[in-house]
Structures are given as C-alpha cells and as structure tokens.
Design brief:
alpha/beta, Rossmann fold, Isoleucyl-tRNA Synthetase, domain 2, Isoleucyl-tRNA Synthetase, Domain 1, 4 domains, 31 strands, 17% strand
Length: 875
C-alpha cells in the first residue's frame, strides 16, 4: 500500500470527524453495558474557544474515548450556559449600536432580540470543540435556557420555596453598576489598587451661643459616600474621644447633623480611630446601622452615579465626584490631608467594574441545611477530589457558607416565579406559572383574582441556579424522575473542571444531587490547572497573551496541540504554556507516521524469525503489558499527563528506538512474514493506547493498515487489557540496551564509525540478549569472563564491567590525558562524598534514603576510579 511521505492533518481531521459523526459512534443510548457519563462544564453561549477550554475539553475527550475503548457505554453530554450577565451585556450593546436603549423596549421585545443573538452566535464554541476532536454526543446537546431545562429550574425554585429554603428579604448585596445587577460574593474579585486615604474634618456640634469650633478627624477612601453618612462611630475604650460621647457632628458639605455612636468594631489603630458610618454603602456599616437603628440613605443610583442626595453632584459618576469633592473639601478647609493608600477593591468577575455595596430586596436560598450533607460526602470520599488538596478548600468554604443570593436584576434568564397581587411586601405567591398562582391564591389566601391582576417578579435567577441542576436536568431528571436516561446515566462518572468554580458549581451540584436524587451527581472531580504564560500570568484576551487555539490547530494539527498541552499538564497544577510543546506534539505525529512508513516499506519473506527478532518480540510484549498496567494506574489517579508520558515513551523510545531497530532487516533483505505480522499487531495496539490522545492520526493509520468496515473503526476498538509480564525479560533487555548505549557512546566520543565492528570483553558469564547486542552495537565478538590487556574504553552496566579495545586509529597520548583528567575529577568528587559520610551529624539526622544515595555515589565513584586506573595502566 502507498502512504504519503508526510502526514497532513488538514486532509485527515475533518474527514475522520465526519466519518465518526455519520456512523454515530459518539451517540449513546441506555443498554446492557456499564455507563460512563460525563457532562460538559457548559461554556457560556457567548464564548469562543480559549486555552482553558482546550485543556479542559481535551482531558474530557481523553477520558471519554478511553472509556469507550474499554467496554463502557460512554456518554458525553455537551451544551452551553445562557450566561445571564455576559449575554445581556452583548445584546444591550448591540441594541445601543442600533440606537435602541433597553429601557425603551419591553421585556418581551428584549428577549426576542436575545434569542435572535443566541441563535446566531450561540453555537460557535461547540463547533470549535468539534475541530479539537471532542467526541460529545451532539444529539444530546442542551442549553440552559431551552424550555425543558427552564421548566426544571422553575420547578426546583417552587419546591425549595415550599420547603422553606428560599426567602425574600432586604440585604446588602454586591452591585455591579455596569451590568446593573447584583452578583454573588464568589463573583467578586478583590484587586489591589493605588488610591488615597482622605482625612476629613467633621465639626462637633456646639451648644447654642458657643464660639468654639472643634473638629473630629475621620479617615475614608471614598469621600463621595459622605452624602450617605448617618453616624460617626468611635471605640468606647478610646480615651482620646471620651469627651465626645453622646455628642453630634456635622457632615462636611452635606451639613447634616449625625450622632457619635460607640462600638467595639472600630479599630483604634486604623486611621484616626473614628469611623464614618454609611449603612447603605458598606457591608460592615450596614451591620452597625442595623445594630444601632441608624437611618439608611442610599446616595448612589444603579449606574454608580450620585442621586438627589448628592446635592450639586447629582448625576455625576462616583469616581468623578471623588476627585471633585476632594478639591471642594480642600477649598473649604474641611480636608486635613490626603495620603497615598493601597487597598483591596472588589471588582466584578463578569464586567471588571468596581462593586458598590447596595441594600436591596433580593431572593435567597438558605444554605446551611443543604451544605452539611454535601460536605460529608466529599470528606468521606464518596465524591473524590483529584488532587486531594482541594478537599481543604472545599471544607473551609462549606463550613463558612452564607445564604445564596439567587436573584439578578436582569431580563435574560429564568424569570423568578413569584406573582404579586398587591402592593404589600408579602402580597405574592410562588408558583410554576400564573394559572397555578391563581389556584394557590384562592386556596391558601381566599383571594379570587384574574390573570391580569398578577404581575411576575421582574428579576431573573442567577445563572448558577440553572447550572447546579445540570447533571440531572440534561437527562430531564426533575420533570421525569424515573425516565430511562436519568436512571441509567445518573450519577455521572467524572467531572473535569477548574478549581475556580469549586464553590459556584461543584459544591452546588453536589447539594442539588443530594436534595433531589439522594445521590451524589458524580463519583470523581478532576481539577485542572490554569493555563498561564511564561511570566505566570493567567492567559486572557485583555492581556493579549493568549494564542488563538484555532490558529494553533491549523499550524500543528489538533493532535499535536492536544499532546502538547497535556504533556505539561500535571494534575491540578497550573500549565505554563509554551508553543514549543505544540511542536513536540507535531514531532511526535511525524515520528509515528515515519515509523509506519518504515514498516510499510519492508518486503515480506517466508522465513523463520531469528533469535534477535524473537528476543525483541518477547521483550516488547512484556514491556507493553507492564506499561499498560502503569497507564491504568495513572488513569486511576487521574494523572493524565503521566499516562501520556508512559505512552509517549513506549512508542518513541521502546517501539521506534529499540524494537524497530532490532527487527529491521539488513540492507537488501526482507522481513519474516511472522515478524511483520507481530509488528503490525504491536503497532495496532499502540494506536489503540494512543487514540484517546491523538484520535485523528491514529484513525488515519488504523484505516491505512487494512480496510475496515464501520464496525471495526479504531474509535470503537477495544484497548488491550494489561496481562501478566515477566520482569526479568524486561530487565534483561534494558541491561542490553544500556550496554548498547555504552558502545555507541564509545563510538561517538572517540569518533569511531558505526560501521567499524568492535569486540567487547566483560566479567559477565553470559548476556540474555546477546544477538540483540551484537546487531545493534555492531559487536563482532563478546569475550565472557575475560579481561583484555589492550588499552580499552571501559564502562559499567550495573555491576557488570564492559571493555572495548581502543581502535588503532586513536591517539593514545590524548586518550591518556583525558583519562587522567577524568580520574582527577572523580577523586575530587569522592573526597566531598567521603567528607559528608564521615560527618556523624549528617548520617544521624539525614533521612535514611538520602544517606543511601550518598553511599551509592561513593560506591559508583570507587568503581569508576578502579576502572580508570586499570585503563591508565594499559595505556
């Protein structure tokens, strides 16, 4: 058969992906096989492929393809998340570019635009995952806003409300002025920013008729919030301010009279020890305000601008006001000083905007009750974390969990199913739709109303409130809890995700699974690292340090990129991206392609296998079984990168480097049909092992080896199970390989041609792979149990001494000088080791294994010195 000189990924990748789709290899239906289920962490519908997706989805594909090839009914459910904040922002921006403001249209009109945008751009990332080779069951693709999934979200809200776990109330929230919604604590990223600490003068209110003016100095980083001040707080133990207890101060510029209150919360050492209290604009001030029954004045609107309480600054942006008010305070002699100050500022993970604490009415889910069982299953390893270190992170968060704010001031998302029938705070009912709301209203409250009398809550649910149901909702488990899919595929097998969403998603999915199915949603969670650049910065579009994954695949092939990214991705550790890794992946493809071309070129002859071939075949059979057992062990530990390294070494070093070299026929000769058949068998087994990592190349070679029908494609072929192996056979061959490398090293260092045959002398009585050694090292004769008196190149293979008489073409004087130099170095090295081992403290206190390493260094040095001294005598 003819095979092209070079492998061309562009010609093969789409061909085989289409072939896999046409034959429905990725599609799964419940059957008698054991299920292996993975649900994709749904990427945002607004998203495009980035390096983090590449890593995460490559790992998932490796696991799924391997499970399929190990006899499991593999089902990888793909889908996308509606991404409330991100998608709404995109649609708002699009409308604005067309001269339309969101506030000028109805919710229904806005949603129509949002669906049009989603239909047009929403599938981009899924199509890109196909280019990567992802073997998802595309017939099962789900979207968190599709009707059935939305129905399940609403159903769970109603259920949790009826159980008393969801409530509505006023709370301090994190307000994102750019997205115009609140966000959860977990979505706030604190960043260090350079700012100013302003020391303001609050005039002490004087008794009528008094001419004395006394000021209290108060430090703040946000002078624009003084319009919401309702008290100044001092520590009751602060003797500096004992005379001010019970008095009042006047807020600068605002001229509002506010009380001086006492609370031990105030840090005497920070700033001036006097704290301005703005209950509507700081979470800690809010708590103090509640405790002391203070007035709450909200001086900011939803856009982060000052409102009417801001007096002459009304309508101006908060940061603009900060600059202007500092100037006004200085002009009015109300600013003592301003110092440079570095503080941590909360920013929105979604938009990057600086968060404003804001008090508003929101919906919350009580977490403490449902968090306890979800903590227990992880601590008891019912759900296993890989790496295990993330159990501590999980435990800390779960033990300090706060109620989940599940409402968002958005239109894109599942609308909260609360229906209001009056103006009172509690004039509402919770139901799956308006018709059920009317029934509840009549049955529970005795109120008869019409549909038109009800108005639904304007807020949408947090996107995570839909994705926490994902492992169940993708199988319609909440609307049809006994359907065949949910009963067969749930709980799922493995989850692959990033540690940054351990709280947003992983913890909540475990809670939801236990709440609704009384089962954990998955058995294992594998946390990938974060892809970073060489400067250890997280890759992002904003930094411009992230390559385009599609361009990388065009340049190196999807398989090359997959291997490149996985070779350096140790479990749970961040990946330092280097494009050279992709080159290594591409080189690996080339190596395998050329190996097959070499095998394919050989003529087959009817002749028996010789001893070199039989020994090599026996070794590789055992080596392959041992490596498969090691690969299985690494997969059990979710050490995907280590498993790939084992396969890489088995193919590159063992098969291409040793096996093929050993069986390669001499020039002009053919290969035994028996050996050829065995070689093809080995190659096919290697392609099966490699397929999950490099699906396109391996399928191309598999189909090239021989014609296969649809039932015998590589994608569904079964991998070889690890069998028994003989460690002695493996060790013997590796000893031979080390000896061959020693002879090759002699040739290389002495400039001796590989074609010049050599004799070797050894103290060994025999070598198990003598014929292999003779062929690959070009050894004409081996003298066992014999020393040579000739000047020679001597080296050790374990305890075995091997000597090669020096070629007559060598300059013996130069060789003597080199030997003396090497001997001098070794003696110096030995002195340093001896000194360490003669130190009683070192021997007594160092770990035994460290002492043992030093003793081995000592023995090796002594052995080599003895050899070199013998060599000097012969020279």
């Amino acid at each position: 058969m003819q095979i092209s000189e070079k492998y061309n990924p562009q010609e093969t990748e789409q061909k085989w992906y289409n072939y896999w789709l046409e034959n429905k290899y990725f599609h799964s239906e419940p059957n008698k096989k054991p299920p292996y289920t993975v649900v994709i962490p749904p990427p945002n519908v607004t998203g495009i492929l980035h390096m983090g997706h590449m890593l995460n989805n490559t790992i998932q594909d490796v696991l799924v393809r391997r499970a399929r090839m190990q006899g499991f009914n593999a089902c990888w459910v793909p889908g996308t998340d509606h991404a409330s904040i991100a998608t709404e922002a995109k649609v708002v921006a699009k409308l604005k570019s067309e001269g339309v403001n969101k506030s000028d249209i109805t919710r229904e009109e806005f949603l129509k635009h949002a669906w049009e945008w989603t239909d047009k751009y929403g599938g981009t990332i899924l199509e890109q995952l196909k280019k990567l080779g992802c073997s998802c069951d595309w017939e099962r693709t789900r979207f968190t806003m599709e009707p059935k999934l939305s129905q399940q979200v609403i159903k769970s809200f109603v259920d949790l409300y009826n159980k008393g776990l969801i409530y509505r109330g006023y709370r301090m929230v994190n307000w994102d002025p750019e997205a115009k919604t609140n966000i959860s604590d977990e979505e706030v990223i604190f960043k260090e920013q350079n700012g100013k600490l302003y020391f303001l003068k609050y005039k002490i209110e004087s008794p009528a008729g008094s001419d004395t003016e006394e000021y209290l100095s108060v430090a703040t980083t946000r002078p624009e919030t003084i319009f919401g001040d309702t008290a100044v707080c001092i520590n009751p133990n602060d003797e500096r301010y004992a005379h001010l207890k019970g008095k009042k101060v006047i807020v600068p510029i605002v001229n509002r009279v506010i009380p001086i209150i006492e609370d031990e919360y105030v840090d005497i050492e920070f700033g001036t020890g006097a704290l301005k209290i703005t209950p509507a604009h700081d979470i800690n001030d809010y708590e103090i305000g509640q405790k002391h029954n203070l007035q709450m004045i909200d001086a900011l609107d939803d856009d982060g601008n000052l409102n009417e309480y801001g007096l002459h600054y009304a309508g101006k942006n908060r940061f603009e006001v900060r600059k202007q008010i500092a100037k006004e305070l200085e002009e009015k002699d109300l600013l003592l000083k301003a110092e440079d100050y570095v503080n941590k500022v909360g920013t929105s993970e979604r938009t990057g905007a600086v968060i404003e604490p804001k008090v508003s009415v929101q919906w919350f889910l009580k977490m403490s009750e449902i968090a306890k069982p979800a903590l227990d299953v992880v601590m008891d390893d019912e759900v296993k974390f890989y790496p295990e270190k993330f159990k501590n992170t999980y435990k800390h968060w779960m033990e300090n969990i706060r109620d989940w704010n599940i409402s968002r001031q958005l239109w894109w998302g599942q609308q909260i199913p609360a229906f209001y029938y009056g103006d009172g705070e509690n004039d509402f009912v919770v139901a799956e739709d308006k018709y059920q709301a009317l029934v509840i209203l009549e049955e529970q409250k005795g109120i008869i109303a019409d549909i038109e009398d009800l108005r639904q809550d304007e807020d949408a649910l947090d996107t995570w409130f839909s994705s926490w149901l994902w492992p169940m909702s993708v199988f319609d488990g909440l609307i049809d809890p006994e359907n065949k899919d949910i009963n067969y595929y749930y709980p799922t097998s493995d989850l692959v995700t990033g540690p940054d969403i351990i709280f947003f998603w992983v913890a909540r999915m475990i809670m939801a699974g236990l709440e609704y199915r009384k089962e954990v949603p998955f058995k294992n969670v594998y946390f990938t690292g974060i892809v970073r650049d060489k400067q250890r910065r997280k890759m992002s579009k904003s930094l411009g340090n992230s390559p385009d994954p599609l361009e990388l695949m065009d340049k190196y092939g999807a398989d090359g990129v997959r291997v490149g990214i996985l070779l350096s991705s140790a479990a749970g550790n961040d990946l330092l991206f280097d494009e050279d890794l992709m080159l290594q992946g591409r080189n690996f493809m080339t190596k395998i392609w050329n190996a097959f071309r070499l095998i394919n070129m050989w003529n087959h002859e009817d002749k028996p296998a010789n001893s070199t071939e039989t020994q090599t075949i026996e070794w590789f059979e055992n080596k392959m079984h041992k490596t498969i057992a090691e690969i299985d062990d690494q997969f059990e530990k979710f050490r995907i990168s280590d498993a790939l390294h084992l396969i890489y070494k088995l193919i590159w070093d063992d098969f291409c480097g040793w096996y093929l070299e050993a069986i390669k026929p001499n020039y002009g000769e053919g290969i035994s049909k028996e050996v050829y058949t065995q070689t093809i068998y080995f190659f096919e087994e290697l392609m099966k092992l490699l397929h999950p990592f490099m699906p396109f190349l391996t399928e191309e070679l598999w189909q090239t080896i021989s014609e296969r029908d649809a039932d015998h494609a590589l994608v569904i072929a079964q991998q070889k199970k690890a069998g028994a192996f003989n460690e002695e056979i493996i060790n013997n061959f590796e000893t031979a390989a080390e000896l061959i490398s020693g002879v090759r090293n002699y040739r290389q260092t002495k400039g001796i041609s590989p074609r010049e045959a050599v004799e070797i002398y050894t103290n060994a009585s025999a070598f198990a792979n003598e014929s292999v050694i003779k062929k690959l090292a070009n050894v004409s004769e081996i003298h066992f149990g014999t020393k040579t008196d000739k000047p020679s190149f001597t080296f050790l293979v374990g305890a075995t001494e091997v000597s090669i008489p020096l070629s007559e073409n060598l300059d013996l004087g130069e060789e003597k000088a080199k030997t003396e130099e090497e001997l001098k170095y070794l003696k110096g090295f030995l002195i340093s080791v001896d000194k360490k081992l003669s130190n009683e403290k070192f021997v007594a206190n160092a770990k035994p294994e460290i002492v043992e390493v030093e003793r081995k260094k000592q023995k090796d040095a002594l052995d080599k010195i003895a050899i070199l001294e013998e060599k000097l005598k012969s020279l």
